[in-house]
Sequence to fold (293 residues):
Amino acid sequence: MSDDTRLADLQRRMADELAAADDPTAALDARLLLAHVSRLTETELALKANEQVSAAIVSAAMTLTDLRKAGKPIAKIIGVKEFWGRAFRVGAAVLDPRPDSETLIDSALAILPDKRDLKLLDLGTGSGCLILTLLAERPNARGLAVDKSRAALRIARLNAHRLGLRARASMRTGDWLAGIAGHKDMRFDMIVSNPPYIARDELSTLAPDVQFFDPRAALDGGADGLSAYRLLIAPAMDCLNEGGYLVLEIGATQAEAVSGLMQSAGFQNISVRQDLADRDRVVLGQKQAQKTG
Ligand code: GLN
Fold:
């Protein structure tokens, strides 16, 4: 491109290249990538459309366009994904936050009791999008986020810091509830999780941006996709306060199996919630309050 390239010209060239590579959201992606490279908001980008850009910006923008053309998801290129109205840092070590998981937030916020010192636990926190969103929405809550990946926890910690939630969010490495169940000081009012739930032989059918760029450990749910639920549902009961809730994201075909596991573990008031596409997406259950008298 010539020396007098304007932002608008560059944006159009990026969008054209992405469209030619069959990117279904070419215009949007071009805008997001260019805003990232030029360190402008999308609004500033529109306002400055006629300003000239440096050769360095052009070259950086075209490098990112090539990554996108090779199938890398936008969030993994720019390192940020929006979830429930907040920006979360992401990276190779974590699943990109998805709109699907906003169903879990919606369900959780609707039932969180309005008590002081609410305690929340997130298993397999990844970017931290679930627990940090709940903490941000409920200033009276504290939370513990667990992940077995140290790299994921570094990202969750960074997100807690960026959202001003460090004081209320603890992080620890661990495998589901190991080291938490059986510890009498570890009791929570709500446990949430978006565990890996894809059946192993379906992993190869996932969209390329998921299959090749989201971490396998966040997707692979074992032979039938239910391994993580089997590991975490029964011990979760021991870690809940009376009246506390377990709120789990599930794959669209897993409502019956996961509800069954919750029932076997003694959960009450089990119910299933649907996502915006009307697919089963969340199962929740309650630990019964101890009867008095
Ligand atoms: N919702 C993700 C997908 O279908 C899967 C996430 C998970 O296994 N928890 O791509």
The chain has a mean pLDDT of 95. The longest strand covers residues 240-249. Residues 95, 98, 100, 194-198, 206, 210, 219 surround glutamine (CB under 6 Å).
